[in-house]
Amino acid sequence: MMDFKDGKREKTIIKTALIGIVTNFFLAGTKIFIAMVSNSVALISDAVNNLSDAGSSIITIFGSKLASKMPDEDHPYGYGRTEYIGGLIVSVIV
């Protein structure tokens, strides 16, 4: 069972996902700029791929936040399975 008092795992997931989001937005912006200058459709599609990767990282953050919620009356075992649902959504996006 997940230890809800130790937020180290959640903090690591969020930190890593935020680095991924920032990096992917930077890459997408750079690729879109170069694509506009060079008129390259391939670079635009690669920039869209970077944006979808950033979206996947956002979903990972939400899944991690939900999974770390404390158990309540409706969910006595917690919300840990929401992380699996987030992973499923990310796999469909990829």
Secondary-structure element pattern, one letter each: HHH
State the distance separating the first and last CA atoms: 29 Å
**What's the tally of helices?**
3
Instruction: Tell me the fraction of residues in β-strands, as a range.
Output: under 5%
Helix percentage range: over 70%
In quaternary terms, these chains amount to single chain
Task: Give the domain tally.
Answer: 1
The structure class reads mainly alpha
Total strand count, please? 0
Shape by Cα distribution: elongated
**Which regions are unreliable across 5 or more consecutive residues at pLDDT < 50?**
none
Largest sheet: none
Alpha carbon gyration radius: 17 Å
Let me know the average pLDDT. Answer: 88
Pfam families: Cation_efflux (PF01545)
Keywords: Membrane, Transmembrane, Transmembrane helix, Transport
Membrane topology: Multi-pass membrane protein
Subcellular location: Membrane
Would you write up a description of this structure?
This protein has one domain. By secondary structure, the chain is an all-alpha fold. The chain is elongated. The protein contains three helices and no strands. α1 packs antiparallel against α2 and α2 packs antiparallel against α3.
Which features would summarize this protein structure in a list?
Cation_efflux_TMD_sf; transport; monoatomic cation transmembrane transporter activity; MMT1 protein; 94 residues; CDF_Transporter; mainly alpha
SSE layout and pairings?
Layout: H1 8-38, H2 41-67, H3 82-93
Family: Belongs to the cation diffusion facilitator (CDF) transporter (TC 2.A.4) family.
GO molecular function: monoatomic cation transmembrane transporter activity
Keywords: Membrane, Transmembrane, Transmembrane helix, Transport
